Amino acid sequence: MEHIPEVRAITVGVDGSAPSILALRWAGALAPLLKARIRAVTCWQFHIAVGTFIPVIWDPEQEARKVCAAAVDKAFGGAAPSGLEMVAAQGQAAKVLVEESRTAQLVVVGSRGHGGFEGLLLGAVSATVAEHAKCPVLVAHGTDLPAGLFVAPGQASTEGGGQSGSSNALP
Asked: Treating both helix axes as pointing N-terminal to C-terminal, what angle do 60-76 and 18-34 enclose, rounded to 10 degrees?
């Protein structure tokens, strides 16, 4: 019996920011070309606080799932590509995405996330992933897919770019 290798996924770092939504759209456009599924990964971690505080019931994993689902919904207009997997992973985002790159075909990250330094060209997570990933990395810049990679909501296609009335831009 012939062994058919499993097609590796396109892993996307998702934090809910506009660049991460653009990264999802890039993955949606590239997935059919690479015959790959999409793995949207949102990371969470506990932050240690020192001092007096009131205990709060908070589920960071559930919050990460909500962030990921909202970003996927926004990126694909409520019609996510078939086979898209949403993952809430515990840990620092760059470290988790580098680990994900070991089994990914491609990692896609936004150029900037929710970090605090507006003027930077590249965020800390995207720079670390680009430097240390074990597979190719696409760092999505701007607010728009190229016209030739237009993705209609619910459908990944290389057709339709630049059509009148269509927009690849993020809101």
From this structure: 70
pLDDT score of 148: 75
Rounded to whole angstroms, how far apart are CA atoms 111 and 141? 5
Report the amino acid identity of residue 139. Answer: V
What residue type is assigned to position 88 of the chain? Answer: A
Q: Tokens in use for 82? A: 């078939």
Strands (E), the chain: 10-13, 38-44, 85-90, 106-110, 137-140
Q: What pLDDT shows up at residue 37? A: 96
Quick one: DSSP state of residue 149? G
The predicted pLDDT at position 143 comes to: 86
The reported pTM is: 0.80
List the 85-90 sheet strands across, edge first. 85-90, 38-44, 10-13, 106-110, 137-140
In sign, the C-alpha dihedral spanning 133, 45, 60, 140 is: negative
